[in-house]
């Protein structure tokens, strides 16, 4: 199923996409949750069965782009993987003028503060008073479905609720100046999440095409099979020491083709349109103010 958060008048509502991509509100299934996070934490299997029936229907609400909201707003910082595609590691080290030995023995983890996520067709505040090197990163995001502690790699998929697309907007100059990534990746509106959550029972994320377009130009074009560390490894490794709470978001890193990887670099400017696309999930579109 594809689940969404959308504006219903002045309020935000939860919905399930029908077979024609129209929206059926959760209330039609007799469900009432404050937001997607609460639904993930508190839902029952019977709730999913009720929604499943509506996912096979047509003739629901046709959603306007202006009504689209982040598929989920994390309650904690997003857990991110750095340089988790080999080709991106190469371009990243090149931008920093650091020699890369081609080895990635350990996963790189960092956190991204999200005061308020940005949804599909939402606008990104560029913060050009702080950065002149605004960049994009198309990423697959994993949403944890139940608390995970000491989970083996073989069991990891049982703890996943679903998947969405995340654009990890990044201020490269802030990253370099501060010698770490937290500030440069955590500016307000820098986390775009959407357009929907695909439940884990309906998608295999091991071999999906992932792309990013800027103003119609294809910039990133890869496959999730090119990840160095996959989701099962990551969940197992992190849960060995950290309890991954239900509703947690893990963003699995970006492939090559980001703005800093070009010569000269192609950083974002006001008015740019960025489209992140992952096979079988959809397309996340954002604009730079």
From TrEMBL:
Signal peptide interval: none
GO terms, biological process: carboxylic acid metabolic process
Pfam families tied to this protein: FAA_hydrolase
InterPro entries assigned: FAH, Fumarylacetoacetase-like_C, Fumarylacetoacetase_C_sf
Annotated keywords: Hydrolase, Metal-binding
Molecular-function GO terms, alphabetical: hydrolase activity; isomerase activity; metal ion binding
Fumarylacetoacetase-like C-terminal domain: residues covered: 78-288
Domain of life: Bacteria
SUPFAM superfamilies the UniProt entry points to: FAH
Family designation: Belongs to the FAH family.
Designated name of the protein: Fumarylacetoacetate hydrolase family protein
Species assigned in the record: Campylobacter hominis (strain ATCC BAA-381 / DSM 21671 / CCUG 45161 / LMG 19568 / NCTC 13146 / CH001A)
Organism phylogeny: Bacteria, Pseudomonadati, Campylobacterota, Epsilonproteobacteria, Campylobacterales
């Amino acid at each position: 199923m594809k689940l969404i958060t959308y504006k219903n008048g002045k309020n935000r509502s939860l919905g399930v996409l029908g077979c024609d991509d129209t929206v059926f509100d959760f209330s039609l299934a007799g469900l009432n949750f404050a937001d997607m996070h609460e639904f993930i934490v508190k839902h029952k299997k019977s709730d999913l069965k009720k929604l499943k029936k509506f996912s096979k229907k047509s003739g629901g609400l046709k959603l306007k782009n202006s009504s689209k909201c982040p598929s989920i707003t994390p309650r904690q910082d997003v857990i991110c993987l750095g340089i988790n595609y080999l080709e991106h590691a190469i371009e990243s080290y090149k931008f920093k003028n650091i020699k890369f030995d081609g080895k990635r023995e350990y996963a790189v983890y960092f956190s991204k503060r999200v005061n308020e996520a940005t949804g599909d067709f939402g606008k990104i505040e560029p913060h050009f008073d702080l950065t002149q090197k605004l960049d994009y990163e198309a990423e697959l995001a994993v949403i944890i479905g139940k608390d995970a502690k000491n989970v083996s790699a073989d069991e990891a998929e049982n703890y996943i609720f679903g998947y969405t697309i995340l654009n990890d907007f990044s201020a490269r100059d802030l990253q370099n100046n501060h010698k770490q990534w937290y500030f440069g990746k955590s500016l307000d509106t820098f986390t775009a999440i959407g357009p929907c959550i695909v439940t884990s029972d309906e998608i295999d994320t091991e071999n999906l095409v992932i792309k990013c377009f800027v103003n119609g130009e294809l910039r990133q074009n890869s496959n999730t099979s090119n990840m160095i560390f996959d989701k099962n490894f990551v969940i197992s490794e992190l849960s060995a020491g950290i309890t991954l709470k239900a509703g947690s978001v893990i963003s699995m890193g970006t492939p090559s083709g980001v703005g800093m990887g070009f010569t000269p670099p192609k950083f974002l400017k006001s008015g740019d349109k960025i489209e992140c696309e992952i096979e079988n999930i959809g397309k996340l579109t954002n604009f730079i103010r």
